[in-house]
Amino acid sequence: MKVLHTADIHLRDQDDERWEILQKLIKAGKKEKINLLVISGDLFDKGVDAEKLRPKIRKIFSDNGFKVVMIPGNHDQESFRPGLFFGDDTIILTDPQKPFEFQNIRIAGLPFEKTGGEEILNALNDLKKIFIKDKVNILLFHGELLDSFFSPGDFGEEDTRRYMPVWLDYFDGLNVSYILAGHFHTKFDDRKLKNGGYFVYPGSPISITKKELGQRKVNIFEVGKPPKPYPLISPHFQKVEVVFDPLGEKDPAKKVKEHLEKVNPEARVLLSIKGCINGRKFSLTEEELKNKIEEMAQKARVEGPVSYEFIDVREIVESELFKNFSKKLDESGIQEEKKKSVIDTVMKAMAEARS
Description:
alpha/beta; 6-stranded mixed sheet; 8 helices; 17 strands
């Protein structure tokens, strides 16, 4: 039995990259020969009229050779009213006391509600009657795990409210092998339960905000084995920081180009330029270098304005004061990395003093 687990796709009305990643998830499911596709909340984005999207969803989720099991999240909790049809192969779990049984597993859903504390504990306690030992039990959950140090940005564009908060020990005594969770966007995160089971956030399969950095993943695992991150080829944000060395031999513009050429083709780059340059050495002014970087940024997938924090220190590099300081630094035998850090600090201080 093989499961693909994801969450937080946040589909919108128009055809866009989020719809494309949903299609890629279906292809990945077929390639990996899964039996179940689990979406642990927020298939739809906030305010989206899911009723208009259901015909398209039915088509995508049909005739794939596997079932699709979903729960509502905090963004789409109104999208799954009783009686709505999402396709023959799609199961929506809105009542924890009405699990879905498939071969040797039993799946119950604890969808998002504006609740917490004792009410969640009571709901979990009621699941003890459902999760008996004759099956492998799986719980779908959409909410916030308090054991982890998350910020509101890790949950997308949420405010500071708590969203169905739980602690891992809430699940003590519950005969569950996997808690397949949603709501935490930024990265794949799995934790061991006291009973030997697993609590897993797959992270969003596509970057929804700029805080969701790096290649996106889903959770694909064989029932009875640990969760396993499965990398996706999907749009994501990636930070690229270029730090110039004023004593280096490489042209600063070429250095930026080399960094951008190494970036994943699906990445949207958040580019920052730091450090110091010796403009005279490369016949470059700060403005000329900035213009060259802007040209490269237009050709690469650079998102938003480039952060420029570099300075031209040509006069400082050629001053007797700095030359004497650099000589003494060489004689000290200091490690190369520390030496670069010291030089950068001194140059910035000297530049500030000159200004």
